């Protein structure tokens, strides 16, 4: 980057010649994104009417409109696959908050994605109880099965998902499955991509109470 | 059939999928406590019943629920009730079971507690990962509105209550009550300085009662059958039953509802089946990953109650037992625990943000064999410098178990360091690949 370059967006003037080479990304990072500081107007953001209605309905559930920020970001993620900058600007315009505010919220939470992710989401628990029962190995198996399918699949390790009774387990498109064998990973990925039902016999929904299978009847 | 050691109160009839629907729940006598409370009782009477019952919060701290509710000031200002369903503590999965199998019990409990606290607006803050359970709650709340148990002029008593199911988006810290309030207000989930406590200044600045799912699920029984009935279960200082999540190296991990005070050995060995044949319990977390681990010698023969666990230097916490058998490497378990808190630290307070980070780095050095015994002293001192120095107890929640592990298993830390230093193969854990068959499957 030349030292006398002037950023047209902000009027920011880069500092004079330096003796040390500087990573250009650092310089660019210093250019403030003014657009994120201003609440966009509705006509600027091209917000579909049904999205606007939905966000307004969400705001109406709470005494304070800002409480709708997480539900509204969920809505964007449901529609766009992730919290897109355009989606965030639409929410910002309807909620009358700045895009920067919504980004600060979205970036805090593990389930809100601020970058594109695959269509199907697989979260493998690697916390204590799952780790003891092979959660790391299960994650490796899922990663291997999903290799080179980044557009369709987002596989990630995850902190405790609250299902240590079915360890090792995974949350596949927000539904819980376990206890899983490593070989289940490839089968699950195949079923996901084929659009079929995933591992029906391993679904948490189908599981009974632990005490009912424990013997020692009263 | 429940196991003979189980006492099912909250999970009574939970094996029946019909319980999820309002008709099924009413078929088992559901919502009669709500009708009794709204039609026949004053707020103070409900409050007194809750206080008399001695019900202690089931979320972790174990504080008296009735007393907490009585801290809310009286007056015309808007008051709120939040149900903490952000169950994210490693090892805990009891609220998931309660919401999934008996959502109306929780809704009834919320409505009665809201009457006692004079709250007009209630929220269930459920962790975003529990999508299936949130769907179940959404459906149950809609049914309850339809039946007139929620909304305006409930049962013609001129009382109103709005109940909203609010999904979080994945952050352990939001289980901390003030961080939960910030998250519910639409912000990043950072804890607040206390005091003021939420009972005085909570959600939207108004007085707020915050209770765990299991605590609120106990309310209908107490109001319907009386405080004395409730005190008939458990011990004097820990009355009632408790849904205990047992996981880790046991053959039948799962939720078991027991009377508080049951011998811990029965819980781990008789109910959860204990470790596989030929293996022994080495240590266990008695109350989720935040509780200091107890060795088998220390803990197995204690009664499982708030007071006994506190006396032993640990805590009952959320009632989640994670069992490590003789194959689990304690240093690796400590690292796994520390990584979790490092990931989940919100970063607001320096001792927690930096302390969790450096603890992870030092424990990584330990298991790689790059540490010296002095590093263990530093790990221990870092833990001591976290405890009590932050806005919330997330840092303490790492410091307590990690500190306890270093203290109680120092020999093993030194062995692992020495072995790793000599580049020996270390098996951090033996994979317990014996997943039980789907237990007593119920049709979906």
Structure explained in plain terms:
The complex is a heterodimer of chains A (218) and B (444). By secondary structure, chain A is of the alpha+beta class. Among the domains of chain A are: 37-106, Orthogonal Bundle (Arc Repressor Mutant, subunit A); 120-196, 3-Layer(aba) Sandwich (Glutaredoxin). Chain A contains nine helices and four strands. Chain A has helices at residues 24-29, 42-45, 49-60, 69-80, 85-95, 99-106, 128-132, 135-145, 182-194, and strands at residues 120-125, 153-158, 170-172, 175-177. Chain A has a four-stranded mixed β-sheet, covered by helices on one side. In chain A, strand 3 and strand 4 (175-177) form a beta hairpin. The model of chain A is unreliable at 1-8 (pLDDT under 50). Chain B is an alpha/beta fold. Chain B contains 18 helices and eleven strands. Chain B has a five-stranded mixed β-sheet with strand order 6-5-11-8-9, sandwiched between helices. Chain B has a four-stranded parallel β-sheet with strand order 3-2-1-4, sandwiched between helices. In chain B, helix 15 (350-368) packs antiparallel against helix 16 (373-386). Chain B is globular, with a radius of gyration of 22 Å. Chain B starts with 21 loop residues before the first helix and ends in a 23-residue tail after the last helix. Classes of the chains: A alpha+beta (218), B alpha/beta (444). Chains A and B meet through helix 4 and helix 7 of A and helix 5, strand 3, strand 5, strand 6 and strand 11 of B.
List the defining traits of the structure above.
heterodimer, A: 218 residues, alpha+beta, Arc Repressor Mutant, subunit A, Glutaredoxin, 9 helices, 8% strand, disordered N terminus, B: 444 residues, alpha/beta, Rossmann fold, Ubiquitin-like (UB roll), de novo design (two linked rop proteins), five-stranded mixed β-sheet, four-stranded parallel β-sheet, 43% helix, disordered C terminus
């Amino acid at each position: 980057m030349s030292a006398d370059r002037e950023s047209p967006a902000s009027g920011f003037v880069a500092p004079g010649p330096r003796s040390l080479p500087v990573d250009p990304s650092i310089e660019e990072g210093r250019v403030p994104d003014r657009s994120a500081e201003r609440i966009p107007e509705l006509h600027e953001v091209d917000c579909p009417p049904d999205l606007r209605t939905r966000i307004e309905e969400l705001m109406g559930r709470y005494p304070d409109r800002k409480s709708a920020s997480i539900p509204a970001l969920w809505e964007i993620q449901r529609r766009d696959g992730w919290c897109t900058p355009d989606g965030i600007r639409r929410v910002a315009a309807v909620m009358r908050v700045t895009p920067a505010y919504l980004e600060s919220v979205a970036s805090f939470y593990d389930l809100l994605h601020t970058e594109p992710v695959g269509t199907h989401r697989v979260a493998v628990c690697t916390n204590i109880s799952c780790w003891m029962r092979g959660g790391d190995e299960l994650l490796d198996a899922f990663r291997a099965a999903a290799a080179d399918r980044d557009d369709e699949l987002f596989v990630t390790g995850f902190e405790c998902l609250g299902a240590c009774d079915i360890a090792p387990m995974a949350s596949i498109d927000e539904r819980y499955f376990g206890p899983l064998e490593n070989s289940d990973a490839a089968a699950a990925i195949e079923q996901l991509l084929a659009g079929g039902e995933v591992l029906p016999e391993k679904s948490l929904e189908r599981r009974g109470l632990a005490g009912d299978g424990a013997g020692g009847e009263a | 059939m429940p196991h003979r050691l189980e006492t099912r109160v909250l999970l009574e009839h939970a094996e029946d999928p019909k319980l999820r629907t309002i008709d099924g729940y009413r078929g088992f006598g559901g919502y009669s406590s709500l009708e009794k409370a709204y039609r026949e009782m004053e707020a103070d009477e409900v409050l007194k019943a809750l206080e008399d019952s001695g019900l202690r919060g089931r979320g972790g701290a174990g504080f008296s629920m009735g007393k907490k509710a009585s801290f809310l000031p009286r007056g015309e200002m808007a008051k709120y009730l939040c149900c903490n369903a952000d169950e994210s503590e490693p090892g805990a999965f009891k609220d998931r079971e309660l919401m999934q199998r008996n959502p109306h019990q929780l809704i009834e409990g919320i409505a009665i507690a809201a009457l006692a606290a004079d709250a007009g607006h209630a929220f269930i803050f459920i962790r975003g990962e529990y999508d299936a359970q949130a769907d179940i709650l959404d459906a149950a709340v809609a049914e309850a509105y339809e039946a007139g148990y929620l909304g305006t002029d409930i049962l013609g008593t001129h009382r109103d209550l709005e109940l909203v199911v609010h999904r979080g988006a994945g952050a352990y810290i939001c289980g901390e009550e003030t961080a939960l309030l910030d998250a519910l207000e639409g912000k990043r989930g950072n804890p607040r300085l206390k005091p003021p406590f939420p009972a005085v200044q909570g959600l939207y600045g108004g007085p707020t009662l915050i209770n765990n799912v299991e605590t609120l699920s106990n309310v209908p029984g107490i109001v319907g059958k009386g405080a004395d009935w409730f005190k008939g279960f458990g011990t004097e200082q820990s009355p009632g039953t408790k849904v205990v999540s047992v996981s880790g190296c046991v053959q039948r991990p799962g939720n078991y509802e027991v009377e508080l005070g049951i011998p811990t050995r029965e819980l781990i060995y008789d109910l959860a089946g204990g470790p596989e044949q030929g293996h022994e319990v080495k240590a266990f977390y008695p109350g989720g990953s935040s509780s200091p681990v107890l060795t088998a010698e220390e803990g197995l023969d204690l009664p499982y109650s708030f007071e006994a666990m506190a006396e032993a230097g640990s805590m009952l916490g959320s009632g989640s037992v994670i069992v490590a058998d003789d194959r689990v490497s304690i240093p690796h378990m400590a690292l796994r625990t520390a990584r979790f808190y490092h990931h989940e630290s919100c970063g607001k307070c320096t001792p927690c943000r930096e302390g969790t980070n450096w603890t992870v780095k030092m424990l990584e050095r330990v298991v790689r064999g790059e540490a010296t015994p002095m590093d263990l002293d530093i790990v221990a001192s870092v833990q001591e410098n976290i405890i009590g120095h932050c806005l919330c107890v997330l840092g303490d929640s790492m410091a307590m178990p990690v500190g306890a592990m270093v203290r109680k298993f120092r020999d093993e830390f030194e062995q692992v360091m020495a072995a790793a230093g000599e580049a020996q193969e270390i098996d951090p854990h033996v994979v317990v690949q014996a997943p039980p068959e789907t237990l007593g499957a119920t049709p979906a």
